[in-house]
Amino acid sequence: MANKLNSALLDKAVEDILAYSLGETVTKGGAEVKGKKRNFVETVEVQVTLKNYDPQRDKRFSGTFRLPTIPRPNLKCCMLGNAAHCEQADRIGVPHMSVEDLKKLNKNKKLVKKLAKKYDFFMASDNMIKQIPRLLGPGLTKAGKFPTLLASGDDMQEKIDEVKSTIKFQMKKVMCLNVAVGNVEMEKQQIIVNTQLAANFLASLLKKQWQNIGQMYIKSTMGPPQQIFF
Question: Which parts of the chain are beta strand (E)?
């Protein structure tokens, strides 16, 4: 699909985002704005407003796409594993829980909620994934964090990286969508490529593709939004 994003505009937007995050001065709407370096790694996200779309009538869409560069490397994973997977998780420094650990939570809603809050995503061994609802109740599903399956032949680190670099667009009742495409420690070109791929993928999910996209902005967590499509 043709890339509808103006590459010069996108290039300038990402350049400004990175400069702003380093505390440099950027020009925004004709005025100079002084950036500020934060004491955490800011995420860069794309915000999209749809048009000619009726969330009540039109088909809701949902899709996932793997970006070439991990946008949020700091996402925390917890492995709900069998003995072999727990041992593997230990070796690569990933937090893990066994069936016994999960039983200790005793389906306590508060404890399950706390567990869901503590990690960004979960993975589970194939013999564990079927037991999750029985052991924990619906808590992880409600939090939108039902575990990703890790088959016995899968490479754990590769699977974790895959989850970290996968973005999801899901149409809810609102016309705005946002998705992480990078962070301010990435190379400019990596953010640009991730942004172009994410935008093209979103357009491919829409009925009228780019004609359903009204505006698109890109911004860092604390930085001003930069318009890249209108």
Answer: 25-28, 31-34, 43-50, 62-66, 77-80, 96-97, 121-125, 148-150, 166-170, 176-183, 213-220, 226-229
